[in-house]
Amino acid sequence: MSYIFDPAPVPTLAVADSQDRIPVRRIFCIGRNYAAHAVEMGKDPDRDPPFFFLKPNDAVVEDGATVPYPPETEHFHYEAELVAVIGAGGKNIAEEDALDHVWGYAVGNDLTRRDLQLKAREQGRPWDLGKGFDRSAPIAPVHSVSKVGHPSKGFIRLTVNGETRQEADLAELIWSVPEMISILSHSMELRPGDVIMTGTPAGVGPLAPGDTCVVSVEGLGELTTKIGPKE
C-alpha cells in the first residue's frame, strides 16, 4: 500500500527538561469552567453539567512562537488554561482513579476568534471556526507528574504587554481534572496523547498585532506567545 498524499507530520508537545516529545492525539477543551468567567460570558455560574469541544491536534503552537493575527475576526481573544496530558488510556474511568491516567501538566492558551464563536452560539451552531482554527492552541513544555504532582491550587495568571488581564486560583475550577477525565472517558475512550485544556478564568479579552501574551501557572512556569501581523 502507498499513500496518495504524504501523511501529515505528527503534532507534538515539548517535555520540560528533556529532548523527548509527546505525540498529540486530540485536544479536548471544557467551556466555562470558572464561575466568574461564566458570568462574564452571560451564563449562569451554577455547576451545570460540563460541555466540551475539540481543537485539531495540529493547532498546537510552541512556547515563544509568533502567532499571526488570524483571518475573519476582529475579536481575537486570549484564554489562560491549565493543561493536562493523558499518559494511560481508558474508558469508563472512575473519578478516584482518574489521576492515574495523567502523564503531566502544562500551561496553555485557548486562543479564540470570539466574534465567530459568539455568532455560532447565537445560531445554535458548532464553535469550530471560533475555536479550532490554525495555531489556536499554544502549549508550553509538559511537566511530568513525577516532578510536579497534580496541581489543584495555585495561581493562574495572564499578562498582555506586562499588564495583568487574568488572575485566579486553580482551586476555583468548577469541574476538577479527575472529574473531567472521568466524564470524558464515559463518552469515548481516552488514549495516550490526548490533551485536556481545563478552562479559563474571568478577564478574557482582545489581542492585537505586536502584543506579547504570557500565561503562567504556579509550579509550571510560563508560556509566551507573540502576536504577528494579520494574515
TrEMBL record:
SUPFAM superfamilies: FAH. One of its GO terms (molecular function) is acetylpyruvate hydrolase activity. Keywords: Hydrolase, Metal-binding. The keyword Hydrolase applies. Gene3D superfamilies: Fumarylacetoacetase-like, C-terminal domain. Residues 27-227 form the Fumarylacetoacetase-like C-terminal domain. It comes from the Bacteria. InterPro entries: Fumarylacetoacetase-like_C, Fumarylacetoacetase_C_sf. This is Fumarylpyruvate hydrolase. It comes from Marinovum algicola.
